[in-house]
Amino acid sequence: MPTITLAPLRADGVSVVYGDRRVLTDVSLTVAPGHRLGLIGENGAGKSMLLRVLAGAETPDSGTLSRPPRTGFLWQEVRFEPGDTLAALIEHALGEVRGIERELEAAATALGSGDPAADARYDTALAAAERAEIWSIDARRDELLDGLGVGGIPLARRLGEVSGGQRSRFALAALLLGRPDALLLDEPTNHLDDEAAAFLERQLRSWPGPVVFASHDRAFLDAVATGLLDLDPARSGTTVLGGGYSDYLSEKAAERSRWEKQYADEQAELKELKHAVDVTARSIAWSGKVRDNDKFVKSYKGNTLDRQISRRVRNAEGRLDDLRDAQVGKPPAPLTFAGIPSGFQVLGDGSGLLVQAREVRIPGRLRLDELSVAPDARILVTGANGAGKSTLLSVLAGRLEPTAGTVQRRRGLRVALLEQDVRFADPSASPRRIYAATMGERRAETVPLTSLGLIAPRDADRPVGALSVGQQRRLALALIVARPPHLFLLDEPTNHLSLALATELEEALGAYPGAVVVASHDRWLRSRWSGGGVHLA
């Protein structure tokens, strides 16, 4: 039987222009079978676009691509019809596998036909069937659904009847079940708890083909990636590094220091050369005193000095032109979380509780015996998917009334909730326009949108519908931070945010002048949490 060697996944010089903006510029990569490349970079740097290009869902403006014939792609948001069943979602993902099964049956039938090519056809079909593990589909389906924490949900249930996180995990299970030769994953851990994330890590570390994934999960990057592709701007364009995320942080800091030093040195030299051309060389004049009868000496020495000055000027001008052409660009200012605007005051005199909840019940969604939120509280809400973390935040925000129990809120309490899934009513509106309409013109002028460091100036006037999921979530965060609430509720705050911004947001929340309640699966965040917590079973 012929041995089928898995092919690598390659991109060479890929560039993409989206609307009026260049999203990817000359990106090249090679991912061999058994290797796992993590994509990192700021929101809008092009991670999702690169995955779509690699999957063949988008066509690049330039560059070449090659990928294994069966390349599976996990979209960041599940594409589904609410009326479809979970069983149909899984069966749709098995379309190629069913084709392999049919080809194996046809090849087996052809063995008795006398066709000299039948043996080779059957061997090829059998190898493909073994690689797709078609004989263990049912057992692997159950293993994957259980491992990802959704094994107890009936497959006859409709997609519109389960949560967004459950839909995402079913889509991931369906993709893995099909055993594609290569995997492309866009934020695969966004809706996974610890056990499910650890299960996925084990699946990917043993995956035989190439894997490319975009993730903001710092713990996941360290556990899975054999290399990282940084799509943030750099002197050499995109940067491919071996090792995990910790290695990347060290190299990124060193590269930034080298870049800043080279830029500073070149700017200092440019200033000196310009001074030499404009001032120093031309100010030199032959000052020797001569007698009236020594005109020849004066003419000779003066001409010699003129030639020396002219040569110096030409040398300086030449070096100035060369350096202007070859100088490195200025390192872009990091897009950082600017922090909480000054002047914020806690509610009232800072004493008493902001919220007190007792015996809260919502059948099938939430069971909470007691929770007290002080004006300076730091509370981390944990629990498995479906335990009611998002439901609890909605109850605290006053958006959802419990079936039983009491929720008492302090008079004048201002609450804001950063939701997991952000939607803006008018996709054609720009972030600046949405911000001004929400804040009011006076507030928008006092605290400009771009001053918060969450939306880059180049994106402030683009249609919000053209922004990435992460950029839209940044805008939602900006709308809250510009008018800080007394009680700040955050549902999975690090989802869809860049690694740098997630860290900066965590640090800013530590100094927030009001109460903070965070629901999160982020292992990095939870391992560093210094406040209190509540666990939902």
From TrEMBL:
GO MF term set: ATP binding
Domain ABC transporter: 9-261, 323-537
Keywords tagged on the record: ATP-binding, Coiled coil, Nucleotide-binding, Repeat
Coiled-coil residue windows: 249-276
Gene3D superfamilies, per database record: P-loop containing nucleotide triphosphate hydrolases
SUPFAM superfamilies reported in the protein's UniProt record: P-loop containing nucleoside triphosphate hydrolases
Alphabetical list of PROSITE patterns matching this protein: ABC_TRANSPORTER_1, ABC_TRANSPORTER_2
Pfam families: ABC_tran
PANTHER family associated with the record: ATP-BINDING CASSETTE SUB-FAMILY F MEMBER 1 (PTHR19211:SF14), ATP-BINDING TRANSPORT PROTEIN-RELATED (PTHR19211)
Protein name (record): ABC-F family ATP-binding cassette domain-containing protein
